[in-house]
């Protein structure tokens, strides 16, 4: 829903979904772009993508977000969703996204938001300011010493890092605002989706939800 709203009325020549897993979002992006590439570091996800994307013209390339295999200015649209959870220090990734985007190109980046309503309320009650640095939210000890990071971010800090990379914030949406198992059991799916649609834009200014979608433009 968020991606459709942010891209509505636009069409792009070349797009890539960074860290796109098995390619689910690539199918959506293909309706907004002439050419789409799934850029995914995990071989297992790319193997799964062969089945999901079978019969499409979506490209599948193994690459890391901090080392994108695209030429300077090659892309008009880049998306990176459900990836920032695993990047405590995204400066290199943002620099790469900016590099591969053409001037005026669009990036949509979803950020796991530490400063959502519940955390803000708790910090205020305890008299502790929200951290500006990423916060490790892993609830159990990692099995391996080199386990993938699992963090939430301060949105203002991330927007500043993006600006430093040459990506200017155009708009944002607050997503998963009613993420409650109780509500999901009590209300029909259609009602939950309608409430989500109404609140995404209205609650974006306060970074209310646990997931914030940022729409950015390269200068």
Automatic annotation (TrEMBL):
Residues 17-109 form the Methyltransferase type domain. Coiled coil: none annotated. InterPro entries: Methyltransf_11, SAM-dependent_MTases_sf. Signal peptide: none annotated. One of its GO terms (molecular function) is S-adenosylmethionine-dependent methyltransferase activity. This is Methyltransferase type 11 domain-containing protein. It comes from Aeromicrobium chenweiae.
